[in-house]
User: Which sequence fits this backbone?
């Protein structure tokens, strides 16, 4: 493989004692397939459940039990492959990966080794500095998840629950194209967005729906690839970054202290932020992969694949392009909106027939900060896109000033009422009628004659008068009209 | 003439290594016997090296059809007692094994 | 008093439905005879109490005119078929107390037709053997003995309990499984009819797996008509088995004895060079002549790769077995041997739970799949398997059926071949190619050798053409000399 040549540009380095080091990162992402039932059995694939309640005889590897594949999981894998612009292999094979572990009831995991269902693809990742990089995907294959071992229930024993045993996973393997913790984090974020657009994985890292094995090595820029270590099963984007930073630093220190990197599997310890060797694996695994004789090769008909192509949603890269083109958004705003397809959907609903810039500002400003405070997802927003649109309309037609609109928005959040209803109920509509405003201005000036004189000398005092008028009008007076009238009356 | 695959000799270490992979305890006195038995069986199966298999696709099943797929429906599960009824040791519906040290 | 010795499946079915005797009377006769036959050591578990209840229900159904097709017929089941609530051990110490909560598809189908389970029949441990000597309950004994010898003989294997029980008239039908000859070879050794259907014809669901790509269930019976009747109820598509074929079932019963005039039978010339006992070779030639006199055209066919079938089989079957038997680890079910650590638990459980032959095959299978050896052994064997398969495909373009002896020798003495695995394996030289090619084949008793021991002729035909085996088989049945076992030496 000529991985090194194709990504020879040095994008990021870290400082060692004697010079710069480049970090080379490849990821193996385990993404749980969104499905009702398991990959090879009819028991529930849903998260949680009482111990052993989502377990069939097949999942428990009872003698004579046989696997039958879930069509939907195959579709999901193909769909994901298409979302990663990857080659779909119409012929693929399920292999057995043999090893002993108590949460692996069969004594083997059904996986795909030589002939995966999805081949090479790519993901475009936008970095913080605005630059885009392409991360190549080596392959995607389907496999079974294992059960769960609990080591903390009993001091002497480990407890095994098989609820997850047999749940469908997609293993997505990247080429070693990532060069920093930030790049890796951005990649996983983007991948998760794509999976969520496709609805093939919920991307819920707390529930373990998305986990990463991270391959890290370091080298002097321009050198050949160094020896890599694999950090297993990291389950949050933040931890992925921390693990890479720690591990790269550790490897640099090792090499600079004259020691060699040993190829090994390591664990990321969340409590210390460090990686440590899994010494219990004293002997290299020999998984003895071979085609599972209980299953025949998977042959995907053209029509099967075509049908999935037709169902593909608009993916984030295309959506971004379209948002920029159709709404004149800048790349920054477009990135925020496409990072979650519900954002983009909300935006398009608000911006329908309205000013896109005002719409995006309200969404990424007031709405996001409110949702953040309330700890709500956008689809649970107390303010619907129709309501926010109506609010923007009230601003555009002059009914509400920007300030009033913010007040109304606060009330909308609390009451979920439509903005027009709130404006009527609270009699909040803006006073734009000049004679009405003039009366208030006159009243304020009459009772502050000394200040009027003063203001002629110090024009800054105009602001004070405007404030008084606004206060008197309970904020409803059109600020621009007030400003003009005050200036006129004072004679500036 | 088909070239012979390089000779692979089975030693006592081979027996220990594969019995470790297969998680089967083998008493020291058994190792020697297995070494000779398995060696002779492996030598015997090496008769296959006489066969020219150039351009022959491996065949892992005599059936020629494609893999049949089932619909994504929850049809199973919720049979905890069936799952645990033969368990050597269980507690609170978990299987229990000696502590696994990571 | 019912004459069990001269009864067969068809006659018993007719007698029950004609109310010549009741299901309870019949059952009692069998139970009585089984009790007197303990010297043969054929049953691992008996099911008499449940059988009694079932027989009473069957009688009720017969009286009410609601009899199902096989109502009230007692059968034996190889202890490899899982039977709900009844111990299923695979004749292994590691499963000695295993009671499945589920019923295999095959036994369920037979039950649904009204058959009654007498008990579970001995076999070689996990079906690995050709003599039924590796059973954890000790060797099963052949009801046949040589004319002038008191030597106890093996009933063949791995389905020796099944063949012995039918030969000793302890049941009119026994289910069995055949991975490399385990139905046909024991049938030949005991003067019974053993049918190995096409791979995929009968469901494997609920049958303890040995080598998944080769295992196939079938019946052992006294006659070809019985075999056809049994297959009718055992065959069929099962959605729970991904290797079960959705192919129509022929009218097997109707095929029995149909004229074969003008059809062709193939004689593989390579088989003449095999090391066959003289009587067996002569019997084979005799059988060819029987066909000639029926107006069948005799054609020489080439099966040049068949001589490699045995070595290929002894790579493929152990490889699959090494993985299939990984689930017996003492964690979820079965025997557990304790140890200080999990690793000790595994190794002690499997080291003590499996017998010598099973361990030997697991080790061979582990070896041929392990890193560095996969291509040289496993992959090579898979390629040779294709060549063997292709030989048959070519041959069946020319002929309807291929005829061979079933075994190179007649039944041998208990203990005679046990110390020499390779000699034991050579028993399957004529049967193994059929499994590798996935073809259907039948062994039919074809006469007695000079010691008075039964010999068998094997007929092989194309995939899913079992009907032809019954059609052709009748010729052997009617042309052979008598094969009645005169001595019932074992009865107590």
Assistant:
């Amino acid at each position: 493989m000529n991985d090194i040549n194709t990504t020879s540009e040095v994008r990021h380095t870290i400082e060692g004692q004697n010079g710069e080091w480049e970090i080379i990162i490849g990821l193996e992402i385990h993404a749980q397939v969104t499905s009702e039932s398991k990959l090879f059995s009819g028991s529930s694939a849903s998260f949680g459940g009482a111990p052993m309640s989502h377990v069939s005889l097949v999942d428990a590897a009872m003698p004579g039990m046989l696997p039958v594949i879930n069509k939907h999981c195959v579709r999901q894998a193909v769909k994901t492959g298409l979302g990663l612009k990857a080659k779909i292999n119409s012929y693929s094979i399920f292999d057995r990966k043999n090893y002993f572990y108590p949460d692996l009831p069969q004594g083997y995991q059904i996986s795909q080794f030589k002939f995966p269902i999805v081949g090479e693809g790519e993901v475009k990742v936008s970095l913080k500095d605005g630059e885009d990089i392409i991360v190549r995907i080596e392959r995607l294959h389907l496999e079974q998840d294992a059960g769960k071992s609990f080591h903390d229930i009993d001091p002497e024993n480990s407890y095994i629950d098989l609820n997850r045993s047999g749940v469908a996973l997609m293993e997505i393997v990247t080429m070693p194209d990532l060069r920093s913790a930030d790049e890796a984090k951005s990649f996983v974020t983007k991948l998760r967005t794509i999976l969520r657009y496709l609805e093939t994985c919920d991307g819920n890292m707390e529930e373990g729906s998305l986990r990463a094995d991270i391959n890290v090595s370091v080298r002097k820029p321009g050198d050949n690839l160094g020896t890599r270590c694999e950090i297993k099963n990291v389950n949050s984007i933040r931890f992925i970054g921390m693990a890479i930073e720690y591990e790269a630093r550790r490897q640099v220190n090792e090499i600079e202290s004259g020691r060699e990197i040993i190829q090994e599997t390591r664990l990321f310890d969340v409590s210390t932020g460090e990686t440590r060797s899994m010494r219990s694996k004293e002997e290299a695994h020999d998984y003895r992969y071979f085609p599972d004789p209980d299953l025949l090769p998977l042959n995907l008909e053209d029509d099967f694949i075509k049908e999935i192509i037709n169902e593909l949603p608009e993916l984030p890269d295309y959506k971004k392009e379209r948002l920029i083109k159709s709404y004149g958004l800048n790349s920054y705003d477009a990135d925020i909106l496409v990072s979650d397809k519900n954002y983009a959907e909300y935006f398009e609903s608000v911006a329908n027939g309205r000013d896109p810039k005002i719409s995006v500002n309200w969404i990424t400003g007031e709405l996001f900060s409110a949702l953040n405070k309330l700890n709500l997802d956008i689809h649970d927003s107390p303010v619907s896109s129709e309501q926010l649109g109506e609010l923007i309309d009230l601003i555009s037609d002059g009914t509400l000033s920007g300030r009033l609109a913010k007040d109304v928005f606060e009330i909308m959040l609390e009451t979920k009422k439509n903005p027009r209803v709130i404006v009527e109920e609270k009699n909040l509509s803006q006073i734009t009628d000049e004679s009405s405003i003039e009366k208030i201005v006159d009243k304020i000036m009459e009772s502050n004659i000394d200040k009027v004189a003063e203001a002629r000398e110090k024009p800054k005092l105009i602001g004070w008068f405007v404030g008084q008028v606004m206060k008197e009008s309970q904020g409803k007076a059109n600020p621009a009209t007030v400003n003009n009238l005050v200036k006129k009356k004072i004679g500036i | 003439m088909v070239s012979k695959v390089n000779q692979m000799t089975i030693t006592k270490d081979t027996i220990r290594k594969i019995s470790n992979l297969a998680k089967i305890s083998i008493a020291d006195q058994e190792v020697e016997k297995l070494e000779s038995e398995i060696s002779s069986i492996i030598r015997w199966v090496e008769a296959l090296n006489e066969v020219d298999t150039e351009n022959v696709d491996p065949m892992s099943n005599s059936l020629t059809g494609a893999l049949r797929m089932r619909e994504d429906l929850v049809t199973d599960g919720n049979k905890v007692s069936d799952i645990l009824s033969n368990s050597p040791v269980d507690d609170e519906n978990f299987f229990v094994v000696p502590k696994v040290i990571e | 008093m019912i004459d069990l010795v001269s009864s067969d499946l068809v006659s018993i079915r007719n007698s029950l439905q004609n109310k010549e005797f009741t299901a309870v009377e019949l059952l009692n006769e069998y139970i009585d005879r089984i009790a007197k036959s303990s010297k043969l050591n054929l049953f691992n578990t008996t099911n008499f109490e449940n059988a009694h209840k079932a027989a009473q229900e069957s009688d009720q159904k017969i009286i009410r005119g609601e009899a199902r097709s096989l109502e009230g017929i007692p059968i034996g089941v190889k202890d490899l078929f899982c039977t709900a609530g009844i111990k299923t051990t695979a004749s292994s110490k590691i499963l000695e107390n295993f009671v499945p909560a589920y019923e295999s598809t095959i036994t369920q189908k037979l039950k649904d037709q009204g058959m009654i389970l007498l008990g579970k029949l001995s076999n070689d441990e996990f079906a690995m053997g050709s003599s039924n000597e590796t059973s954890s309950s000790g060797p099963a004994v052949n009801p046949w003995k040589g004319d002038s010898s008191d030597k106890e003989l093996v009933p063949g294997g791995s389905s020796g309990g099944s063949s012995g029980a039918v030969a000793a008239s302890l049941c009119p039908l026994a289910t069995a499984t055949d991975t490399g000859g385990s139905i046909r070879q024991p049938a030949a050794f005991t003067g019974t009819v053993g049918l190995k259907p096409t791979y995929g014809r009968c469901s494997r669901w609920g049958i303890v797996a040995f080598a998944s790509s080769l295992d196939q269930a079938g019946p052992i019976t006294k006659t070809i008509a019985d075999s056809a009747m049994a297959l009718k109820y055992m065959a069929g598509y099962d959605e729970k088995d991904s290797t079960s074929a959705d192919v129509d079932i022929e009218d097997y019963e109707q095929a029995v004895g149909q004229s074969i005039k003008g059809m062709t039978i193939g004689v593989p010339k390579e088989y003449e060079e095999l090391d066959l006992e003289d009587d067996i070779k002569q019997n084979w030639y005799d059988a060819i002549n029987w066909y000639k006199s029926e107006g069948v055209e005799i054609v020489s066919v080439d099966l040049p790769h068949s001589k490699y079938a045995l070595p290929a089989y002894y790579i493929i079957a152990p490889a699959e077995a090494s993985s299939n038997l990984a689930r017996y680890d003492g964690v979820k079910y079965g025997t557990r041997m304790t140890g200080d650590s999990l690793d000790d638990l595994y190794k002690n459980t499997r080291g003590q739970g499996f017998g010598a032959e099973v361990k030997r095959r697991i080790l061979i299978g582990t070896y041929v799949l392990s890193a560095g050896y996969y291509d040289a052994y496993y992959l090579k064997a898979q390629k040779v398997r294709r060549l063997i398969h292709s030989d048959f495909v070519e041959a069946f373009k020319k002929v309807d059926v291929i005829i061979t002896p079933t075994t190179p020798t007649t039944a041998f003495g208990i203990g005679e071949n046990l110390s020499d695995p390779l000699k034991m394996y050579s028993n399957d030289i004529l049967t193994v190619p059929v499994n590798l090619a996935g073809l259907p084949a039948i062994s039919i008793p074809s006469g007695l050798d000079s010691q008075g021991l039964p010999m068998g002729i094997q007929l092989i035909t194309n995939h899913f053409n079992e009907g032809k085996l019954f059609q052709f088989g009748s010729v052997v049945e009617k042309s052979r000399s008598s094969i009645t076992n005169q001595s019932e030496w074992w009865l107590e």
